[in-house]
């Protein structure tokens, strides 16, 4: 949540463009409706997606897949670095 909040507030304060000139409105951030607020969506949907990916990991249909569980920025940097320059 800390990272989602920091990115969202950064977009708000710096008025960063999302797409086609759109900017994050304050009303969306302050809303408790997950359809409008990325913060509310992340707060209410995290558990659902965590369960979905946990089930996918143990599903025999996915036995041919390798799931990477990344817990930190360092983990992400390591995976990207191992993938090589074409991945960046």
Describe this protein's structure.
This protein has four helices and no strands. The protein has 88 residues and is an all-alpha fold. It starts with a helix and ends in a 5-residue tail after the last helix. It has one domain. Helices cover 57% and strands 0% of the residues. The protein has helices spanning 2-14, 26-30, 38-58, 73-83.
List the helices and strands and how they pair.
Elements: H1 2-14, H2 26-30, H3 38-58, H4 73-83
Number of domains: 1
Beta content: under 5%
Helix content bin: 55-70%
Mean pLDDT: 90
Radius of gyration: 17 Å
Distance between the termini: 25 Å
Question: In terms of quaternary structure, what is this?
Answer: single chain
Order of secondary-structure elements: HHHH
- Counting DSSP H or I runs of 4 or more residues, the number of helices is 4
Helix/strand-derived category reads mainly alpha
Q: How many β strands by DSSP?
A: 0
- Major beta sheet summary: none
What general outline do the C-alpha atoms trace?
extended
**Which regions contain 5 or more consecutive residues with pLDDT less than 50?**
none
In brief, what are we looking at here?
The protein is an all-alpha fold. The protein has helices at residues 2-14, 26-30, 38-58, 73-83.
